[in-house]
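Weekly sync, protein design subgroup
Attendees: M.S., D.O., the rotation student, P.L. (late)

Item 1: inverse folding check
M.S. brought a backbone from last month's batch and wanted to see whether the design step gives back something sensible before we order anything. D.O. pointed out we never logged the input encoding, so this time it goes straight into the notes. Structure tokens as presented (1019 positions):
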């Protein structure tokens, strides 16, 4: 009854757990965003970024401090150690920056971006007018004030960012010559514009028993109303704003734009808060979009350009299929060996019961359902029945033997003794498997977040399986197993296998044991020689069904030119048959911490299901887009893109960071490192971070001339800043929407250095003089962006790989850099990225696994009371590793963290079989009256043949769905695990049938007799 309750609650809990594509791998990061309109990157770095860095540096738990000083924008990323409470980290940062707020420029107001996760961007929605009747700026207004507000009201949505179209403004554009003609100053125009619209209140009137509010209504967004505002009375004639300025609708200076499937429009990026179910939240957002659809203007469509839920649904669906198919295969194997429906059904009950307990534990500890937790269950599906297999097989065999006896014992007595016979072996075998998975719990960083759920799922399900085998399985056996009276024999399959093993493996093992050991040693050496020949990578590539493509033009490219280049790229991408949709974003959105210069186009490409393979499509994308001259291309996938960015701060697998004070030296040395990388076959998308000089117009005041004309430098800068960059004078309201009222010179008066030089500047004496008389106006160059890390300037060279041997490529690159790049004093470089994480994870796993091997040896010694017998069991581990290495070399030819996880898993399963085999040899000597003879070894091996083969086959065959699906979503990262386990099980099982009997025959007699003597004697 209790088991039934557990099953029901487990199923119910499974339907309620949040579903994600991967475990949450977000490193606690506090992002400080500061808009500093009009400031160049040098001023942003000096006046904003450096003070904020100084305040934050030294906060407790801070791991890394990165910053970007862009045009009018400062971004500071404070990365904290894993496990840090993000809200406490935000509080600490907020407290630290209070001390420097007063030192920042007046217009610079830092703020923290919302808390989001690494996989937080769950949807991209494109808004466009299919017939072109709605202008992009009106689409932006619709997106900001209708769609964005509706979506942000949904619980779980952290942020909605909009890009494209431009934010609507009303601009008053004064004409300097007209101002001079009327004798007006800019200050007078500014004051009049500020007072041209606005509401106020005059309190209340007391009208007898009533109280009436008095409102002064002057708010308007009508251009003609603003234009008719009086500035001043000159010669009894009112001078209006329209007399000296143009009033028109415009957009605020744009640092980004967007298009949707080749039509200029708006793209909304929707980020979720951590801890929310992506699929449920996505469905809520989609329902809200459907609700909004009737309210959209005619011809306007909201199209989904990227949906993370698609990958989640495919990945989770594929893994559920793998678990289902694996369970079916395990059931078939069990039935073929047992040839009894009841024993098969009883054994299979361990599967749902163990998983139900695992799911309940997931719920208790807040673990989500994702590809890694399901992957852990898929890996364990064949192993959770192992305990039940051994127990049921032994009970069934002993019941048949008892029924064949002239004086059969009672059924309960037989079941109790048969279960007790294998209980110690099952216990130690289960503890051993749990031990070998413990190193995964010691992993840190991304790899820890990825593979810890596999370890938790496997350890939990194995522990649950052991409890089920001790409690539920014997009860079910007593209820349903009733062998008939008479002589019972094995099935045809089992008889054939026993005959084959007796006449091949056992004949070789006992007839020529030294030859068998030498043969196994040669195979072991040969397999280990394969390891250096294989490539090394951090993680297998995901197959996400979408692509993130970056197309960078030369720094300094205007937004208009970048849009033209981007639309060419869009047309080329849409010519590919597999492409479903293309969303394009140039530059960055307002308040966006994903800093991209306007010269960079980022394409979000969705693909139709089916069609050509990902590699072929990506190759065609590279071929087509490389035909656009003067651009640099980077092709990746959304999740992979974000993983790389989190590891090194850049969106590439390998990142070389050069640190130093001078940007020109950094660029020079960066170019040398980049050129060396281009010589290495296998490195692709090699890119030097675009920290390069871009055109600037520099206005430098001549102080002697300024003194002669009575011009104060600060006042002059303020005038020029207002006229060229614009100044917001009021915030107008149109219903619930706000529109900035801005004063700024018309484009025709500020589009060249010559026209800027003719700009009339007001002096303290009331004169108007051309700016060129008191300032030098010249074209120059300055950095487009300044990137810093841990308070040092740095430049990055990024690269991806077409060859999966990541480690080898990095070593080649490192060698070339050491030989040919000489860094000046005060400069240094380091290599970072996926390879670094792969090396660190490998070293950590190796260290922890070494400790576990010692613990396993101690465990086995405590069981057998013999070091010799413990080492004989542990021989199965290298026997398994050789098969895992061989099959990995044949199918993948690459070693990743996922491969190492497979080695851990298969080592535990292989050692488990050794315990069962040697444990039964000892049982025959101690309880069955057998001596240490060849016959005893033959008998013990054949009696354990069925459970050993059943456990190995069930564990291996359950992974066939993962083995045959290398590139299906959700299975990519588990495919190497399955390859290693299947290969290892084949080699360890086949060789175990020769090596274990041979080693026990050669070296086990003294240890066995000593073991028997140490056991307590039954009265």
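Designed sequence read out in the meeting:
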């Amino acid at each position: 009854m209790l088991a039934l309750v557990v099953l029901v609650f487990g199923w119910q809990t499974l339907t309620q757990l949040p579903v994600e594509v991967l475990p949450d791998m977000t490193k606690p990061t506090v992002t400080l965003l500061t808009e500093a309109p009009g400031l160049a990157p040098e001023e942003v770095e000096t006046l904003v970024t450096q003070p904020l860095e100084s305040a934050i540096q030294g906060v407790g738990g801070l791991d890394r401090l990165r910053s970007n000083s862009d045009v009018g924008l400062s971004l500071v990323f404070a990365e904290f150690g894993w496990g840090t409470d993000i809200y406490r980290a935000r509080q600490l940062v907020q407290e630290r920056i209070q001390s420097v707020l007063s030192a920042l420029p007046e217009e610079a107001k830092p703020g923290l971006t919302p808390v989001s996760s690494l996989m937080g961007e769950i949807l991209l929605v494109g808004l466009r007018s299919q017939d072109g009747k709605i202008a992009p700026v009106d689409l932006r207004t619709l997106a900001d004030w209708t769609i964005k507000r509706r979506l942000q009201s949904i619980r779980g949505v952290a942020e909605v960012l909009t890009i494209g179209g431009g934010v609507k403004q009303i601009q008053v554009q004064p004409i300097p010559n007209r101002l001079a003609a009327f004798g007006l100053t800019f200050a007078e125009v500014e004051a009049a514009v500020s007072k041209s619209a606005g509401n106020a209140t005059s309190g209340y009137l007391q009208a007898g028993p009533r109280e009436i509010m008095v409102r002064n209504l002057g708010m308007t967004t009508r251009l003609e109303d603003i234009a008719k505002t009086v500035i001043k009375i000159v010669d009894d004639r009112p001078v209006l704003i329209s007399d000296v300025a143009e009033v028109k609708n415009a957009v605020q200076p744009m640092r980004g734009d967007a298009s949707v499937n080749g039509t200029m429009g708006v793209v909304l990026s929707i980020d979720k808060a951590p801890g929310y179910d992506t699929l449920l939240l996505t469905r809520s957002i989609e329902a809200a979009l459907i609700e909004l659809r009737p309210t959209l203007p005619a011809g306007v469509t909201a199209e989904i350009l990227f949906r993370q839920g698609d990958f989640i649904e495919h990945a989770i669906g594929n893994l559920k299929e793998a678990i289902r198919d694996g369970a079916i295969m395990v059931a078939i194997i069990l039935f073929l060996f047992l040839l009894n429906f009841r024993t098969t059904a009883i054994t299979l009950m361990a599967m749902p019961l163990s998983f139900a307990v695992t799911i309940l534990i997931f719920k208790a500890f807040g673990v989500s359902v994702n590809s890694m937790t399901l992957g852990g269950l898929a890996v364990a599906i064949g192993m959770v029945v192992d305990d039940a297999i051994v127990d049921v097989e032994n009970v069934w065999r002993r019941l048949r033997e008892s029924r064949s006896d002239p004086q059969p014992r009672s059924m309960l007595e037989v079941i109790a003794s048969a279960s007790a016979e294998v209980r110690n072996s099952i216990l130690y075998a289960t503890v051993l498997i749990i031990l070998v998975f413990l190193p995964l719990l010691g992993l840190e960083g991304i790899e820890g977040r990825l593979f810890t759920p596999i370890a938790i799922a496997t350890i939990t399900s194995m522990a649950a399986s052991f409890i089920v085998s001790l409690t539920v399985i014997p009860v079910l056996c007593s209820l349903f197993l009733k062998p008939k009276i008479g002589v019972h024999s094995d099935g045809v399959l089992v008889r054939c296998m026993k005959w084959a093993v007796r006449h091949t493996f056992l004949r070789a093992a006992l007839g020529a044991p030294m030859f068998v050991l030498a043969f196994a040693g040669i195979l072991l050496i040969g397999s280990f020689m394969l390891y250096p020949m294989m490539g090394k990578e951090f993680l297998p590539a995901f197959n996400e069904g979408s692509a993130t493509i970056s197309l960078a033009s030369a720094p300094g490219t205007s937004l208009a030119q970048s849009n033209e280049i981007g639309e060419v790229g869009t047309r080329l991408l849409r010519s590919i048959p597999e492409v479903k949709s293309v969303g394009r974003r140039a530059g960055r959105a307002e308040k966006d911490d994903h800093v991209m210069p306007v010269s960079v186009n980022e394409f979000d490409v969705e693909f139709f299901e089916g069609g050509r393979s990902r590699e072929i499509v990506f190759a065609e994308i590279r071929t087509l887009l490389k035909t656009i001259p003067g651009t640099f291309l980077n092709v990746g996938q959304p999740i992979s893109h974000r993983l790389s960015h989190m590891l090194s701060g850049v969106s590439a697998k390998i990142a070389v960071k050069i640190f130093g004070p001078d940007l020109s030296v950094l660029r020079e040395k960066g170019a040398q490192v980049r050129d060396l990388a281009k010589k290495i076959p296998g490195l692709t998308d090699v890119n030097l971070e675009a920290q390069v000089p871009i055109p600037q117009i520099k206005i430098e005041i001549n102080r002697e001339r300024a003194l002669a004309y009575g011009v104060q430098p600060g006042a002059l800068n303020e005038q020029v800043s207002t006229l060229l960059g614009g100044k917001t004078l009021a915030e107008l309201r149109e219903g619930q929407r706000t529109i900035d009222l801005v004063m700024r010179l018309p484009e025709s008066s500020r589009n060249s250095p010559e026209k800027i030089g003719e700009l009339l500047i007001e002096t303290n004496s009331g004169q108007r003089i051309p700016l060129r008389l008191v300032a030098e106006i010249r074209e120059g160059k300055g950095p487009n962006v300044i990137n810093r890390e841990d308070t040092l300037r740095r430049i990055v060279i990024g690269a991806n790989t077409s060859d999966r041997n990541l480690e080898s490529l990095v070593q080649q690159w490192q060698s070339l850099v050491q030989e040919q790049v000489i860094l000046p004093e005060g400069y240094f470089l380091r290599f970072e990225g996926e390879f670094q994480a792969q090396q660190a994870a490998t070293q950590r796993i190796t260290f922890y696994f070494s400790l576990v091997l010692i613990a396993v040896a101690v465990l086995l010694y405590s069981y057998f009371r013999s070091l010799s017998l413990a080492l004989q069991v542990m021989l199965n581990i290298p026997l398994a590793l050789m098969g895992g290495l061989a099959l990995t070399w044949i199918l993948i030819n690459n070693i990743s963290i996922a491969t190492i996880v497979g080695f851990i898993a298969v080592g535990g399963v292989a050692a488990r079989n050794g315990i069962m085999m040697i444990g039964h040899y000892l049982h025959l000597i101690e309880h069955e009256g057998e001596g240490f003879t060849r016959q005893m070894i033959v008998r013990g091996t054949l009696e354990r043949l069925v459970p050993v083969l059943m456990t190995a086959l069930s564990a291996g065959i359950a992974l066939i769905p993962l083995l045959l699906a290398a590139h299906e979503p959700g299975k990519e990262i588990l495919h190497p695990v399955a390859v290693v386990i299947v290969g290892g099980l084949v080699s360890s099982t086949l060789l175990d049938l020769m090596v274990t009997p041979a080693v026990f025959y050669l070296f086990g007699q003294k240890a066995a007799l000593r073991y028997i003597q140490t056991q307590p004697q039954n009265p």
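Discussion: The longest helix spans residues 445-480. The first strand starts at residue 29 and ends at 35.
Action: P.L. to compare against the previous round before Friday.
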